[in-house]
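Dear support,

I submitted the protein below through the web form. The confirmation email said the job was done, but the results page showed an empty box. After a refresh the structure appeared. I'm attaching both so you can tell me whether what I see now is the final result or a partial one.
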Amino acid sequence: MKIETKIAHFQKPLYLESGRILEPWHIAYETYGELNRDKSNVILITHALSGSHHAAGRYPGDRKPGWWDGLIGDGKGIDTRKYFVICTNVIGSCFGSISPISPIYPGSSQEYRLKFPVITIKDIVKAQKILLDSLGIRRVRAVIGGSMGGMQALRFGVDFPNFADILIPIATTYQTRPYVIAINKAMSEAIKGDPRFKGGYYDKEQVKKEGFPGLATARMIGYLNYLSPATFDRKFGRNYVKTDGMFQLWGRFQVESYLEYNGNNFPKWFDPLSYIYLLKAISLFDIGRGYSSLLEAFSQIRSPLYLISFTGDTLFFPEEMRQIKKYMDIVGGKCRLFEIESDYGHDSFLVEISKFDYLISEILEKGLEKRK
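What the results page shows now:
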């Protein structure tokens, strides 16, 4: 599988939903496979909160492959022998695209930090569309993404109705519920309340070396909603760490050790401000904003919509995907919903790939001959 990683730079301003602009700006992206002559085999992958453009394959020295490596590659559900796959790092994230820790101007020592504008899923999608236009890609075979990536897939359908042959949003919602907004608030406050935050002017290298308890705590809060109670029961039970004393105050159950390990490692590779800004984008997500109603928003979608949800998702519940199906049925849109039996939790779309990879392969193959 051929892998290329690039950063595209743009001098023209990116006008944001808030009315503010980013100028100049840049976006990192990675491609897999080969683009065919008429550019009809493109699949856009959109990532979730802590994801990146590195969706598949391995870099030299990588301990782990890209976050959807089980799905993307030669002979896999998204077969890179047939398709040219593109995954961008969303603006606001910390893996090469413009973000709060980017210089305000190229070569400047002054970084945006809290002067970075609030971004939305609409802005994220707009930036990706500009990138693809610059590559001469005016239409894609599919937009596929889970969680925040699913929000982007829906947004592409509403904002650019003729851009994708099909849309595959996975484990997502059409409008972020108060429950998730509250979770995001708790995570943001954990980060802001850490003395090391220093009003957003923390030392980035110090964070990587010494950690950032507030961000670690935020990640632990996240895990409580990414995995279901059944998964916690199955993985850990009430087992205690063998080297810890049962009646030591800081003695740990194995589940506590798991949360500590993942939480404390998170600041080594993810930036606190990027986390806050992307949580805000998720909280703000409402596919109906800018329209008179949700029905008017869904009526903009022209592409067949294939929804994939998981019965045990405890972040974006299955009924939220069912509601999307209802709206699409009311407006007469083409939509199918697949509910995957799973008790793993929200992260099923990252972990239980074997339960839906064949489905994505079938969706991509179906109707190829009908492409106009």
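Response: this is the final, complete result; the empty box was a page-load delay. The domain at 3-175+287-370 is CATH 3.40.50.1820 (Rossmann fold).
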